Amino acid sequence: MIIFDDPDRFSQFHQSCVATIGKFDGVHLGHQLILDQVKQRAEQLNLPSLVILLEPHPEEFFARADDDCPARLTAVKEKLELLESFGIDFAFQLNFNQDTSQLSADSYIQDILVDGLGVSCFIVGHDFRFGHKRQGDFNMLLERGAELGFEVVETAAYEYNGLRISSTSIREELAKSNFDLVEQLLGRPYSIKGEVERGAQLGTDLGYPTCNVNPHRKRIPLHGVYACEVRLGDSFLQAAVNIGYRPTVTATGEALLEAHILDFDEDLYGKSIEVIFRQKVRNEEKFDGLEALKAQMALDVKQVREILSAAEAHSA
Does this model's pTM top 0.85? Predict the structure, then answer.
């Protein structure tokens, strides 16, 4: 998959494409159905498939504080990896900034879709709104498409037990730690990927060394301690994971994921890992000092071992 952020780069090599647009947060089964639509129509027209990816999310751009925007299910790098895995040819990372937010609906169509990408077929939801003050809608796209020579197709909706799958519904289920249901809505277990960074070594000092990963999002969808699996290459390792703001030891306000991999002592700094969430153990808490935290970590690790051992026995 080729990733670009300037439509001129695309038009230098391709005259047309079949495209869709969105945030694609989570790249859930509903998104995957849209991607299938795009790929099928692209194949019929013998054109490349393209996703216009809004980054950052408009809600993040307009948010006055991190808590004012929805929690992100996937960082941009994770989204791009998922889009590539589903066979999309191109991803246009449309930088949502002050200029983009002021763009009129007509300019959106003419400058981006027609002149920039040469869209032959545009596949979007009937509730899609775009342009300054959300003045553009599906009917406008139909009218302008007829005038300018591009097809507009409504996206198919994917339902689960009668409910339309959405990123919002997945966030709600994650907040309730319904990981089995989330896995069914995503088509894969919920996970966070990232590169292991060097931290303050506090976990090592307490006897529980951790792999630290920056979630790279303004607002995280999970808070607390979890029983997880860590994927390292082709290996799956059991881990006790804390994701949150570490109220006992820091006041920076920056979210961090810390994975204590059980019975493991290799140096993973700079390596990429995938943390797969299986079950919540407890909420994040502020403890009266490091000794109290250490005692709780021992209890957490014990509970994680029991949870994951029981899960292994059940699946055997």
Answer: yes
Contact residues for 97 (Cβ-Cβ < 8 A; gap 6+) = 61
CATH class of 2-163: alpha beta
CA distances from 251 to 1, 191, 221, 286 (A): 40, 26, 20, 11
Beta-ladder partners of 241: 226, 259
Q: Where in the chain is the domain with CATH 3.40.50.620?
A: 2-163
- Reported as half-sphere exposure (CB side, CA atoms, 13 A), residue 210 has a value of 22
Angle, alpha carbons 26-30-31 (nearest 5°): 55
The per-residue pLDDT for range 90-148, each reduced to its tens digit, is 999 999 888 888 999 999 999 999 999 999 999 999 999 999 889 999 999 999 999 99
Q: Is 56 strand, coil or helix? A: coil
What dotted CATH number matches 191-315?
2.40.30.30
**Beta bridge partner(s), residue 229:** 238, 276
Q: What is the distance between the alpha carbons of residues 240 and 302, in angstroms, rounded to a whole number?
A: 9
Q: Assess whether pLDDT exceeds 80 at residue 12.
A: no
Nearest to 38 by CA among 62, 11, 19, 22: 19
Q: Which residues contact 103 (CB under 8 A, 6 or more apart)?
A: 111, 131, 132
Alpha carbons 176 and 174: distance in angstroms, whole number: 5
Residue 225, strand partner residues: 242, 282
